[in-house]
Amino acid sequence: MAQRKGCLIGCGIALVLGVGLLVALFFGAAKVLDIADKTLLDPKVYEAVKVGDPEGEVRAKLPSGDTFVKDALKDGGPAEPAGSVCAWYLSAADGQTEDVLRLCFKDGKLAEKAQYRMK
Predict the structure, then answer these.
(1) Cβ 105 vs Cβ 85: under 8 Å
(2) 72 φ/ψ angles, rounded to the nearest 5 degrees
(3) pLDDT for 77-100, tens place per residue?
(4) How many CB atoms are closer than 10 A to CB 44?
(5) How far apart, in whole angstroms, are the C-alpha atoms of residue 47 and residue 78?
(6) Which of 56, 48, 42, 63 is nearest to 107 (CA)?
(7) Cα dist. 51→39, 57, 79, 116 in Å?
(8) Which residues have a Cβ under 8 Å from the Cβ of 67 and sit 6 or more positions away?
């Protein structure tokens, strides 16, 4: 009887831990997808916007880009134009995310586009 009770307790603990792990994996996967949604930019969108386009029109086509990942994307690229505000994205081309796409805005217009490999 004591062995059976111990087995039931052990199985109950394993079940609770397993469910907890599944919940954590679900929320972790949701967070990764959210970051990808905010960070990946379709290269067609990048190519379609032109230097000189109004900032509002360009930003309306972009993902929010508001993730902690953007800080890692800043490294390795060319210097930012003086007085500009830049946004960094990963290229969504064919699942390849090694290319960084940077768009810099100044005086209400797209001032510069830069594409470079992540280091």
Answers:
(1) yes
(2) -70, -30
(3) 888 899 999 998 888 866 556 788
(4) 9
(5) 19
(6) 56
(7) 21, 12, 17, 17
(8) 35, 38, 39
Q: Which tokens is 16 given?
A: 């609770």
The CB-based long-range contact list for 61-65 (8 Å cut-off, 24+ gap) reads: 62/87, 62/89, 62/103, 63/37, 63/38, 63/39, 63/89, 64/38, 65/38, 65/39, 65/89
* Backbone region of residue 65 per phi and psi (left: phi > 0; alpha: psi in -120 to 50; beta: other values): left
Q: Which residue has the higher pLDDT, 42 or 27?
A: 42
User: Shortest CA distance to 90 belongs to which of 118, 66, 48?
Assistant: 118
**Which tokens go with 4?**
């059976």
Contact 89, 117 (CB under 8 A): no
pTM of this prediction? 0.64
CA-closest candidate to residue 80, choices 88, 72, 69: 88
CA angle centred on 19, ends 16 and 21, rounded to 5°: 110
